[in-house]
Amino acid sequence: MTLLESARNGIITDEMKQAAVKEGVTEEFIRQGIAKGEIVLLGSNHHKDVNPVAVGTGLSTKVSASVGIHNDDDSITGEVDKIMTAIAAGTDALMDLSVSGDIDGMRKAALSATAKPIGTLPLYQALADAKKRRGSSLKMTVNDLFEVIEKHASEGIDFLALHCGTTMDIVERAKREGRIDPLVSFGGAHLIGWMIHNQAENPLYQYFDRLLEIAKKYDVVLSFADGMRPGCLADSLDGAQVHELVILGELVTRARNAGVQVMVKGPGHVPIDQIETTVKLQKSLCKGAPYFVFGPLVTDSAVGYDHISAAIGGAISAFAGAEFLCYVTPAEHVGLPNKKQVYDGVIASRIAAHAADVAKGIEKAMQWDLEMSQARRSLDWEKQMELSIDPETARRMWKERSDDFSSECSMCGKYCAMKIVSEFLNKEKALA
After folding, report:
1. Using CA atoms in the order 239, 241, 244, 250, what is the torsion angle rounded to 10 degrees?
2. NCBIfam families given for it (predicted)?
């Protein structure tokens, strides 16, 4: 039985038990969530020593970081360094989005480097392999694509991102509607190029049952990517995006009926006033499937600071019901991120996730902030550093600005409000 089938049959697996302990909820809560399709458990039994991560309703918001080989200058060693940087920053999962070079070697290195769940987008490799073997990615065959999908699943990839809902009808709709930015999804753009060139329907949609057979065989989570995600605020919630979401909702039902866990990936650029609507629409059309959002970015103009734009969008999205944030780095729209930008992107997304969890009443998140408040009241600097989302940065900044680790902070100095009030209250108690 797959994990989803086990949950439906009332069976609590070891993976469910691990997730329950990590989340601070009951094992039954995890089992019921998986059975309903409102929680997915990322953790393939083919990924050696993987630490399962639960994503979904009622759980802490998770963060994913992306790495991968894109240019001749990129190396597996360099990308593994980025993986370790993302882990140091606290990411919950990773995606290897390699599009060129030694894609097999990169994936195997990623799986060996960490016990964190790892996702891939198999279409990237299928296109790259076709270009190598046949001279053009447009010559990719349907069998090429499904062979790569099965290879990734068999090697232990924990979740597969696939553009299953990008159909010919939706492509025609996008043409008619005249988007500002027609396509910004790398995978979606190449898939649509292949479809138009070959005058063929999307094989991931046309042969969806074949995909389900692979996913069930290896019990891997499917992550439905949106080829029509808006690449600018003006295209948010247009007909093509919503049409694709309708199709994905239908495929969610088919996947669940086959015993396959599934989540849905969301849009890239969304104005603040449309975020709640976007999330609720996904939740309704996709029957409560976990929502994996890319950011979203709340302005098109924050070049160099898109991690901040995405953190704003991510916090609002998670509060509205999204459960998984794909990080965005400061290098978005400029180039591929270096290690520092990877780190900053993860931290920004974690801040967004935590802020949303506090607002949603997630007990662990609320307790975390309460303990920080108590440490500040007590002027317990070491405890404050430990409780920081980024302790290393917090401690470094404190040391740069203060040589007294037992008194007030360097911002207010002798005028520290905490210290003054504490002294005043102590005098009042003495007089009483």
Report:
1. -90
2. PRK13352.1, thiC
Q: How far apart are CA 96 and CA 131, in angstroms?
A: 20
- The string over 313-331, giving b where at least 16 C-beta atoms fall within 10 Å of a residue's C-beta and e elsewhere, is bbbbbbbbbbbbbbbbbbb
Say which CATH number the domain at 157 has: 3.20.20.540
Looking at residue 404, its pLDDT comes to 57
What is the C-alpha separation between 26 and 324, in angstroms, rounded? 21
| 412, pLDDT greater than 70 | no
Same domain? For 113 and 86 the reply is yes
Helix, strand, coil proportions of the chain in percent (round to 5)?
55, 10, 35
Residue 399 has what pLDDT?
A: 85
For 120, 168, 173, 185, the CA distances from 43, given in Å and listed in that order, are 13, 33, 37, 26
Tokens 């094989």 — which residue?
A: 203
CA distance 337 to 345: 9
Neighbours of 259 (CB within 10 A): 18
CA distances from 33 to 20, 261, 321, 350 (A): 11, 11, 15, 23
Number of Cβ within 10 Å of residue 154's Cβ equals 14
Looking at the structure, tell me whether residues 347 and 377 fall in a common domain: no
∠ CA 201-294-301, nearest 5°, is 110
Cα–Cα distance between 276 and 316 in angstroms, integer?
A: 7
Domain limits at 406?
Answer: 365-429
Helix axes 103-113, 142-155, angle to 10 degrees: 20
| Amino acid identity at 330 | P
Angle at 323 between CA 9 and CA 26, to 5 degrees: 45
DSSP result, 153-205: HHHT-SEEEE-TT--HHHHHHHHHHT-SSS---HHHHHHHHHHHHHT---HHH
Asked whether the beta carbons of 116 and 87 are under 8 A apart, the reply is: yes
Query: What is the rounded distance in angstroms from the CA atom of residue 40 to the CA atom of residue 296?
Result: 21
**Three-state SS at 291:** strand
Chain position carrying tokens 């049409």: 243
Structure confidence by residue, pLDDT tens digits, 200-218: 999 999 999 999 999 999 9
pLDDT digits (tens, 9 = 90+) for 13-53: 999 999 999 999 999 999 999 999 999 999 999 999 999 99
Last residue of a domain, one of 302, 325, 360: 360
- Tokens found for residue 405: 């680790």
The residue behind tokens 């987008």 is 121
